[in-house]
Structure formats: C-alpha cells, structure tokens
Amino acid sequence: MPIIVDKNAVRMDILMAFQACIEEKPLTNITLRDIAQKARMPHSKLLYYFKNKEELILSYVKYTQDYMSEKCVEWFIENPRENYDSNGAYMNAFMRYVAEGKVGENRPNATTQTYVLAHYSEDVAKLVREEFSAWRKTMEACLTAIYGDDVGAKEAEAMMIVISGTFICNYNNALTGEINGNILGYIGNLVNAK
User: Fold this and answer.
1) Residue numbers of the domain that contains 83
2) What is the C-alpha separation between 124 and 134, in angstroms, rounded?
3) Residue 132 and residue 139: Cα distance in Å, rounded?
4) 39-75 residue pLDDT tens
5) Does 42 lie in the same domain as 84?
6) Which of 64, 73, 113, 118 suits a disulfide with 128, CB 3.0-4.6 Å?
7) Does 187 share its domain with 135?
8) Could you say which DSSP state residue 2 is in?
9) Residues 110, 20, 181, CA angle at the centre, nearest 5°?
10) What are the backbone dihedrals phi and psi of residue 100, each rounded to the nearest 5 degrees, phi first?
C-alpha cells in the first residue's frame, strides 16, 4: 500500500525550515539546499514542492497573510468584549497577545525581512500589499462587529500600524516588553498629555 503524504504539512515544514534559516542568516544568503537541510529532506524533494526560492518566499508571504488575519479573528472570537471592564482593557489585552502570542504558536517571524524584500521584488511587493489589504479588511470587520459603525477602515489601519510595530519590536527583543499589557494606555498618555 502506498504511503499517503500530507502535502500541505510538508509545505508547512519547508516554510518553517525557511523561517528557521532566516533566524540564522540574511535572506539573501539562504539557499534552497540550506532550507532542505533544515527541513531534513533531500534538495530534490524540496524542489518537488517549490520550484525555486522566489516561489518559496511568495508562499511564505501568503502564509503570513493568512496567519495574521486568521489569528486576529480567532482572538476576537475567543475573547468577547463583555469579558473586559473597558474598551481600553480589551484592546490592551489584544495588544498583549500581539506582543507575546500564545505558547506553541507557529508565528511568521520572518516578516521583517520579507517586507524589506518587497522593496526589491515586485512580486513580493504585490503579495505584501495584498496581505495588508486583506488584513485591514479583517481588522475592520472585527472592530465593526465589536464597536459598531463608529469605527472603520481608518481605525483598522491605525491598529495595523501599532500591531506591526509591536510584533516586530517584541520579536527582535528591541524593547523591554514591560508595557505589553498597556501599550495603548501609554499611547493614550501622549494623546492626553498637557
């Protein structure tokens, strides 16, 4: 009887191997052989799933798009607004999740390098724009469902800016992380400062 291979699982293993390689050296220095070795498979097998590095990178950007939208929706479904004392507490809880994530999540941690690559590759740039467009629509739908029609595309876009910065800073350990539970509160202090 032939072995049944879950092709999507193998593709995900390859994408996670790619991500692991990015954590070790710059994207431009990574070869398909490096990725195959990290995925513990022959180079020829990797080529069965991805014909070249660009296709693999584009798949990783698509994975990032799907992941970001899916996890935002999931968090808002699992954490109803009525479980929090205020809108501020609710949004800060969401931002803590953005900063710290859940244990065992396979977060797309190589987004920074792929976003930079978008500046040099029109194909990657197109996917990144599509990623942010889809993510903005998802955030807008989530925020509108929670807060009603008083919020919309501009609030969603503002949240995406804060989310992206928080995600990148915490992933790179660039900041202390001590404010993760009150990120929006500290921004509010700036808005309300005299």
Assistant:
1) 58-192
2) 15
3) 10
4) 999 999 999 999 999 899 889 888 887 888 888 889 9
5) no
6) 118
7) yes
8) P
9) 55
10) -110, -25
